[in-house]
Amino acid sequence: MGARCSKFSLCWWPHLKSNSQDSFDLGFLASFDPENGGKNEGDSLPSFGEFSLDQLRAATSGFSSDNIVSEHGEKAPNVVYKGKLEDDRWIAVKRFNKSAWPDSRQFLEEARAVGQLRNERLANLIGCCCEGEERLLVAEFMPNETLSKHLFHWEAQPMKWAMRLRVALYLAQALEYCSSKGRALYHDLNAYRVLFDQDGNPRLSCFGLMKNSRDGKSYSTNLAFTPPEYLRTGRVTAESVVYSFGTLLLDLLSGKHIPPSHVKLHSLY
């Protein structure tokens, strides 16, 4: 990214200086290159591959409800499970509604395209499964909850300013990388899509880079992050991703989720 400023870049960031205990080292900015994935984690990740349904069933203990990690549990239209492979790697498994992707070829094409991305700012997609009516995605598992949990539902103390700024920057870099690789559309961008890895760093879930169904309708749960025009069209555009990113920035600044006025009006009908 260098000195360029994209629609997601926080151009003021390198000028920030702080003597507070919440500050953190900004030196990594000089070396991060979003088009090449930063410190390319792809070197330590397996290439994208296909899993059998039996493998994923075993990894998730038979898709046990105890392993559900999606925000709305079993009520979600597409449920996400945590699982553990035979090589002891933890994974996240998204199981689509059986009617979401009737065309197996279209599903595989989409999954393989997203699976080519490798970036340290993403919870990367490492595989998929397409057997019978089953459609599943497999990604790196992030063990330290979501931004929604830490920002809105904290128990001990609110999220520190240094981490809020880190989330904003890392999310911008993740979206910039995806855009540079031809995946500018991110579906259902919201605070549940930002996950924290084993080191406590925020990452953007790769699941949102793939449509929730073949028709492209994507915002199934969090209307508060959607632009007003989505209520008319039901479609995601590059501009709607920028809108959702701005809504997340507002949440990070306030520490509260502030739904836009169009969502309040929509909820009346």
TrEMBL record:
It is an enzyme of class 2 (transferase). It catalyses: L-threonyl-[protein] + ATP = O-phospho-L-threonyl-[protein] + ADP + H(+); L-seryl-[protein] + ATP = O-phospho-L-seryl-[protein] + ADP + H(+). InterPro entries: BSK, Kinase-like_dom_sf, Prot_kinase_dom, Ser-Thr/Tyr_kinase_cat_dom. Gene3D superfamilies: Phosphorylase Kinase, domain 1 (3.30.200.20), Transferase(Phosphotransferase) domain 1 (1.10.510.10). Keywords: ATP-binding, Cell membrane, Kinase, Lipoprotein, Membrane, Myristate, Nucleotide-binding, Serine/threonine-protein kinase, Transferase. SUPFAM superfamilies: Protein kinase-like (PK-like). It comes from the Eukaryota. One of its GO terms (biological process) is brassinosteroid mediated signaling pathway. One of its GO terms (cellular component) is plasma membrane. GO terms for molecular function: ATP binding; protein serine/threonine kinase activity. Signal peptide: none annotated. It is a lipid-anchor. Residues 66-269 form the Protein kinase domain. It is found in: Cell membrane. Its EC number is 2.7.11.1. Belongs to the protein kinase superfamily. Ser/Thr protein kinase family. This is non-specific serine/threonine protein kinase. It comes from Vitis vinifera (Grape). The gene is VvCHDp000554_7.
